[in-house]
Amino acid sequence: MDSLKQEIVEKLPKVELHCHLDGSVSRKTIRKIAEAQDYPLPSSESELRNLVQAGEDCQSLLEYIGKFDTVLDCLQVEEAITEAAYDLIGDVKAENVAYIEVRFAPMLSTHKGLSADQVVQAALTGFKKGEADFGVKSRGILCMMRHHDDQRNREVVELTKEYLGQGIVGIDLAGDEASYPAGNYKELVKLANDYDLPITLHAGECGCAGNVRESVDMGATRIGHGIALKDDPEILAYCVEQGITVEICPNSNLQTKTVTEWSDYPYLKLKEAGLNISLNTDNRTITDTNLTKEFMTLDNLYQIGYEGMQELTENGIKASFTEESMKKELLAFVRKEYQEVSRNA
Q1: Structural domain of residue 89, as residue ranges?
Q2: Which residues, given as ranges, of the chain have pLDDT below 50?
Q3: In a domain, 70, yes or no
């Protein structure tokens, strides 16, 4: 099987399902929105990089989560949220992302007076302007946070219901999984089910496959990360049986110590078990990555080739929360572009 060539990978259409807005604001945009608010940042790029990027020496998910602090301080006004959303769409256009689902937690931007509704509207304004200017189809997923109380998380469920089909396509639960297991949120996820909201939940990022099983039983059709499935063949088989898609984020998973070395990364184990897998960045800025880098990483490790790249991309389209007509359009476009590569290989 031919190895992937980076210049070709960059040009091929891609799809992303697991990308956090606050973790994917470029350093250039962070400086821009900070300056507009007189928010002090280090003058040197290396110091700013250390503030907002998790390097190879990152020791845990909690340390990784700490890298959100600076940008979240700047995402407390509507203009900054819109700018961040718009610039992200421009950034993903540069590597030919055709469709992206961007997730964000509205409650994390309400510390200086914005309502959660204003946060959602500001982000949607940026996504829509980005789609108009760059041609990238984008949709939003709203995140409940594990460390937030039921009242705040319930408001996120209600907002998802209100904006479903108006740029928002689903709901998520994110944060410190080890301290706040999935079962704590059964009633909230049941409410989301009652509202027929598409559900993807972070689970299996902290080494607990039981959280994955519980999340699926609660109604998630997609699982963010899910790496702990490598340690539990029974739960892995259950996810395959249920048709679950796992949104893997390899470089992020290494930084958060979901795995401690690449030899432990379970891509082949999950694939050979028959699990649906989509490839994602998680946090483009914090992890210093993009989809091209993620595909090249998998190819270096497992020689996935263009066939594997196409399969991961199609998996993403099929598992996306967008409307069926767009899925058909995206699948036709992707198959045409990959056929062209096959012919020229």
Answers
A1: 6-344
A2: none
A3: yes
